[in-house]
Design goal:
The complex is a heterodimer. Chain A is mainly α. Chain A has helices at about 1-15, 20-55, 60-80, 80-95, 105-130, 130-140, 145-175, 185-200, 200-235. Classes of the chains: A mainly alpha, B alpha/beta.
Chain lengths: ~240, ~270
């Protein structure tokens, strides 16, 4: 136990007095949140597009071709670990395409594409859960399939799947802990740096776990709050 | 106004409509009655292509809208439809429900004109004799204001002005259905299609919905109503179609249909429902 106190003192020395917290919060935490949030935003856009293709009536050739393409996309991004996707983008794709991308941007793009595959399935469920009568009513008024989808179906679908999207955000936040594979500095990396200074990792990692838990708890609260607000707009006026 | 020629609808092996040829004329109020499973609703839904006909033609305003190459959205703007389950947009307030289609349609027309105007301007750069640039028409603000005024006028007509800003989930079935009717009317349709408009309502709300439809009939709106309300069909309709097993087996004025004793199926159907 004395050992533990000693270790704690050592960690606190570096964290508070040595001002390592500035790097943890200013770089690590910010990057983690930026990657997770922008990843989710890109994911929602891509996921909605894929889901729209998936639920489209398939009389014509174009929707059928698009459908195949989306199946391939989802298959790839769900079928390979996100670390592999990061490595492919950073070490294979970018050099082959001949452009330099910052590791942070690489992470945002890859996390966006990856989460798009997952969100598409969530969104598809959400769209299917909306009463088909809503689409019929829109079409009967002379609105096109796309307009009805965008203005009527998707907003209701998003409301239905909000709790699940919250889960996706939480999963993304936790998944960001692998971005140091492509030299991006996140929460995990900053705590490892602290540990590296004295080869003492117990307290830094314990503290890191605590921080992840707090972030996730805050996100959960936020989602609850948004959900309640949305539901209110339905009942009262 | 709408003419169907040998309209057939098949779901797999099951033939629901077995070749219907009839015409709905301007200013006519047509009630379609018949036992369940006779294809009444399917026939109505074929009229605005909510169901695609398997074969046959549907001539609306001189155009065969059963033809898949026709832009059906343009024609549906002129056909209002009212559903059994109301189908008000749950994520929109009552006013937004009514305004959505008129505003969206007017805005997309405006975008089309703007696109044309752009190309005329572009071509004018190289023309000696400049062509006139098409007028954009109303501004978006004007479009919205007009649609809003029209929506409020319609709401006042059914006495639900105070419900303009509430969401549909707070309304009763009768209120929802009356709003669904004026939502369709906001597009100034040439014909209104009613798909069992009172079947999902509590009995005490049927009257308020029927009276809105009755008013429309008195204004000589062309309409087709699939209904189980025989009394209403008799009173409001100018013509009644009796459908049985995918065919129209009796067609005439309410007096002829409800007084008909020759058609065996019709007589037994009426004796059950009246």
């Amino acid at each position: 136990m004395e050992d533990f106190a000693l270790k704690w003192a050592g960690f606190w020395e570096k964290f508070a007095v040595g001002e390592a917290w500035k790097r943890v919060l200013g770089v690590g935490l910010v990057n983690t949140l930026v990657i997770a949030l922008s990843g989710l935003l890109i994911g929602i856009v891509i996921g909605t597009l894929i889901a729209a293709v998936k639920v489209m009536p398939k009389y014509k050739r174009l929707p059928r071709a698009l459908d195949r393409l989306c199946t391939l996309y989802v298959g790839f991004f769900r079928g390979t670990p996100i670390v592999v996707q990061l490595l492919i983008a950073y070490y294979i794709l970018w050099p082959l395409l001949g452009f330099y991308a910052d590791s942070l941007y690489t992470c945002i793009i890859v996390f966006g594409l990856n989460s798009g595959a997952y969100v598409s399935e969530i969104m598809r469920g959400g769209i299917l859960s909306v009463d088909p009568g809503q689409m019929e009513a829109g079409r009967a008024l002379g609105l096109s399939y796309g307009v009805t989808m965008l203005k009527i179906i998707v907003p209701q679908a998003v409301k239905n799947i909000l709790p699940t999207l919250g889960n996706e955000l939480i999963a993304l936040v936790k998944d960001t802990s692998v971005v140091s594979f492509v030299a991006c500095v996140d929460l995990y990396k900053t705590f490892t740096e602290i540990g590296n200074r004295s080869y003492e990792y117990m307290i830094p990692y314990l503290f890191m776990a605590l921080m992840y838990i707090v972030i996730v708890a805050l996100i959960t609260l936020l989602i609850r709050f948004v959900e309640r607000r949305l539901r209110k707009s339905d009942r009262n006026h | 106004m709408i003419e169907t020629i040998d309209l057939v609808k098949r779901y797999g092996d099951h033939t629901v409509l077995k070749g219907i040829t009839t015409e709905i004329r301007d200013g006519e109020q047509v009630a379609i009655i018949g036992p369940s499973g006779s294809g009444k609703s399917t026939f109505l839904r074929c009229l605005n292509c909510m169901e695609d006909a398997t074969s046959g033609s549907i001539i609306f305003d001189g155009v065969d809208i059963a033809d898949m190459s026709v832009d059906i959205n343009l024609h549906r703007r002129h056909m209002g439809m009212v559903f059994q389950q109301f189908n008000l947009f749950n994520n929109k307030t009552v006013l937004q429900n009514i305004m959505l289609a008129p505003v969206t349609v007017a805005m997309s027309d405006r975008r089309k004109i703007r696109r044309e105007a752009f190309f005329v301007r572009l071509a004018n750069l190289f023309r000696r004799n400049k062509k006139p640039v098409p007028d954009y028409g109303k501004t978006p603000a004007q479009i919205k204001e007009e649609a809003r005024a029209n929506a409020l006028r319609l709401l006042a007509k059914i006495g639900l002005t105070e419900k303009a800003d509430v969401y549909p989930s707070t309304l009763s079935g009768g209120q929802k259905q009356r709003i669904a009717i004026i939502r369709a009317l906001a597009m100034n349709p040439k014909v209104m299609l009613f798909d069992e408009p009172t079947s999902a309502l509590d009995p005490e709300m049927v009257g308020e919905v029927l009276s809105v439809i009755r008013e429309l009939a008195e204004e000589n709106m062309t309409m087709v109503i699939v209904t189980h309300e025989m009394g209403f069909a008799r009173e409001v309709a100018s013509r009644v179609l009796f459908m049985d097993d995918g065919l129209i087996t009796a067609d005439g004025t309410p007096e002829e249909i409800f007084g008909n004793t020759e058609n065996e199926r019709l007589r037994s159907f009426l004796s059950k429902v009246l």
